[in-house]
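Weekly modeling sync, notes
Attendees: S.R. (lead), two postdocs, one rotation student

Agenda item 3: backlog of single-chain predictions. S.R. asked that every request posted to the team notebook include the full sequence so nobody has to chase files. The rotation student volunteered to paste the first one in as an example of the format we agreed on. Action items at the bottom.

Example entry:
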Amino acid sequence: MAAPRSRLKKPSVSGLSFQPDQWAAAVLPIVPQVRRKSRREKDKDAIVGATLIECEVDQWAARVASGSDTPAQAEIGLKAWAKAHGHDAFSAAKLLVEKLKQSKVIPIREGLTSVEELPRSIANLLERGLTGSKLQTEKAILRQSSGLSDREFASLWESVEGEIEGDLATSEAVALLLDSKETALQLSDILPMAIAAPLSQQAEIQSLRPELYMLSLLTTIGTLAQNRTSLLLHKGLDFEVTPNIFGAIVAESSQKKSPVLKTVVSRPLKALNKEARNAYQRAIEAWRERQTEAKRNDEFFNEPEPARELYFFTNATGESILAQADRCPKRGLLALSDELAGSFKSANQYRGGRGSDSEDLLSFYDGSGGVSLRVDGIKNDVEILNYGVLGGIQPRVLQKFLGNCEDANGGWARFIFVNQPIAASTLPNEFWGHDISDMLTDYYRRVSEYAPRQYRLDSKAFEFFQECYNRLEQTRISEPNPALRAVIGKTSGRIGKLALGLHLIESAVLGITPPELITEDTVYRASVISKFAIDQIKAIYAECDPEEQQAPVMARIVELSRRKGAITAREASQGLPTTNRPKTAEIRQHFVTLAAEGFGELEGEGRSATFTAYPSQRREQPPTPETAPTTLPTQSKSTRSKSSKPIDRPPTPIDRPITNSGRNVGDQRPEDIEGDAVFEFDYSPEAV
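Predicted structure, as returned to the notebook:
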């Protein structure tokens, strides 16, 4: 601890002491004397300093007015001068701003009254889209006007820039999720009116998507076609497809999945199963009589026992499927299940998980059968099998099966998904008397009786399919997601499968034998369904994207508000899954982001804040005709001909507004469509 200072003592030399006057005379010349300025002197110095500052400010303002310097450069130079001469730099800069305002040269710091407004100013600057020296100049001006240090400003800039990029990516992901789920098809543009009208009416009564009925219909048609029914897409590449389809209805429990399957699939096929059972009973009785007669006459009898045909089943193993196909080589099979999860979980259950049921399912999609080889020899030998899968699955269960959505073996890429949102159905006052199931039974019977053959595309249909194939391949190699690459890679074959199914059902409605050549219009409608299928699975994959966790939550908030209206953060939380459910404070922040991105409006503050979603996203600036969003032709009735005569060139499945024409692509004349306006998958943010 330092010793306390003592008073200055008189030094002594040789025992002699200085007198007070002598001490003062010796010390005062050595110690500098500091005199405080008087009030009058201080005021005089302040006036002089202010005058000097004002003169310097006038000089810098004149340089700005003449264009020699920018306001920011003048402010920088003035502050440097003030610091060098011991003046107040802040007061000098403030005076310069006032001078520039009076001379109508407004610096960028005008309106920037606090640091809290700085992030918004940075965001506005980023949204202007400046680059290079222009961006750096404006950035320097904004930094100088903020009063922050270079390090502080750089940190804030990086933070705001990251938030903007994150909000933009999340907004695009939310829009993609909502648009993909809401993409719709008009059945009258896809199916014959005799089927499209009653199915659409049934869907409206149940408040269900009509695509559910379309998927169920085409999946059933694909398995009713006799084995060896195929479509040759390219002879040189041996590109041949069978009409079987894998379909899945993605909907929550009690969302009317079962009524769709019952109306379109199980009831009509049960009628055919009953007819097949009666025919089998008559055949087995006749066979037994012939067998008995042969024994009575001591004759050799080697006639095989008749087999019972089966149109669909609800539970089976891979080996039993091959056994049934071996017994009835002409008949395809449909695996029908209200809950597909049970079928997937039961794969290989009778072999301790060491079987190949899951792998057999993948090979069945291509129309291939299989050979069962056991110790005692060949048990089943099936060359061709039209095997289809159809059922419902809940979104949360599907997410568990998808995992990280990489789809390593391409199993899910083979499925056509239809996402059914939550919707309340209404019970009509009167019973709707049109029996769809009986009508479908007649059409299904006709399709099952068509002789197997190899169909082909006519010249124009092949030209259109060729363009579709080339576009798809270019899209596939540029797609970064491996799961979506698998989906796009399967789409060319899916177009052929759907075109063949449409060709068969149209012939059944007309009551004719299917022509050998499939027209261009049929291939076009198959491509529209395929584009719809890609949109649906993109929405599903977006739900399980590990890099984007906020978009699915925000999309569910929008969907919930569109059903219920204004919702609070607590109500939104109750509508979200319990796994990784965000806190209410985070949900309120989602409200702010959604409102800023045009998905809805926010009212109130704090816990009382409510979010009301718009029917569709409202963007501040509508897209220009060159970058207009592309949508499927769902709202306006298509002018395409449903006759067998192909048009010169079908319109693209994606409606593109035509500049200065007032018509959509669906309304174009064939000669108006350019050569590059073909089937195209555009997943850029501008197309969302």
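Discussion: group reviewed the output briefly. The first helix runs from residue 20 to 27.
Action items: rotation student to repeat for the remaining queue; S.R. to check formatting next week.
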